[in-house]
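Bench notes, afternoon.
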Amino acid sequence: MPDLPHPELADVTVAELRRRLDSGEVTARRLAEMHLERIAAMNTRGPALRAVIELNPDALEIAGQVEAASNGGGPLRGIPVLLKDNIDTGDRMLTTAGSLALTGAPAPADAALVARLRAAGAVILGKANLSEWANFRSTRSASGWSGRGRQCRNPHVLDRTPCGSSSGSAVAVAAGLAPLAVGTETDGSITCPSSVNGVVGIKPTVGLISQRGIIPISASQDSAGPHGRTVADAAALLGALTEQPEDYTRHCDPDGLRGARLGVLRKPYCGYSEHTDRLYEAALDAMRAAGAELVDPVALATTDEMRSSGTEQVVLEHEFKAGLDAYLAGRPGLAVRSLRELVEWNRQHADQEMPYFGQERFEAALATDGLAAEKYVSAAAKARELSRDKGIDAAMREHRLDALVAPTSAPAWVLDAINGDRVLGWSSQPSAMAGYPIISLPMGMVLGSLPVGLSIFGRAYSEAVLIRIAAGLEAVLPRRAAPMYRDRLELP
């Protein structure tokens, strides 16, 4: 791999960038230029990460304006940020969810969270690639693939998955294409990319960040959230995105594990990868040594039913149709105005949009009967009962826990556009169905090459508690490793 420009950008923290900007070592415009130079060398050339789907043509002008207007300001003033390409920007960039069907015109206005970022002085650098339609089109899609952006790649080992659906957001942060990125999650779409790319991701409580102006899947499960290289970086971005801005970095205590009472989840969140399990056991030992009180094991009584009942899928299919139809009705200039038209458009453009996998989830959603249907109403009530009342809330109350911990995922699998993802195991479903917060942070490397994450989750609106615990964990776990851009994993 030839030398890549500005390699320090793959490691530097937001706090350090803030110091350099404030001291005059670098200007906001130059910082944006450095990231754009790195993107130019790495996105479609060099390792060809395809993490960025579109650059903001006004990024340098915005950076100059931030500079000219700067008089103190918050922690994100002058900091470049990428947005997942399902988040509206009312500018010259498109918002497409990775689909060619939505390339007819830009969105008419900024999403609520984008307006907050602009007010905070962040420099919107561009849009990040994603699993098309946030991975809700097919039952056997390849994470990180979109018709518009093509295949995003894992910067640690290039033939491995970046996971999804916020693939480009996590890859860009890991590789130093941006210090921060905004992803979205319905179930695992922030945490899994965080895990396999070796960054920190936070999916907050549903409703903490406005979903206005974000292409939806599920009103009850969707949330935007930050990717950063450290817990403090992600916390800083989270505070700028929320409905009521808050300084979450004040909870980043390196001694945050001391006295924390944590429930250790095992079956079925372990046992699918001996590599992940080995790192998990080492992380648990580090927690104990740092003063955490572990209740080991803790079981969610409803785990099997959440996984086997299909309740979550019923909810997602109904909410997707209702939400997408409402969203598309407010997007003038597009080729499609409803899910029904989108399904037909994909059929007519199958050679571009469906060369590898189909749209089975779209077709299932199209067959639903609306949010007043008994099937949806009963499934939504059941989902809340399984995930909240008899799930997370019950376990935390019974064991008097501050949070639950589990491995985030298996190591990244080899990309396969034809057969799709090979998902061995994951831990995001309980918090996803509940609409509760979850954080994934790096817990180590498999064979020195593949990152794996640890997830922490808990009650609604417990972000401050989870951030404190995550910061304590970050202080005792192995330091995050910057990507090496290996073509493939060389096995011993």
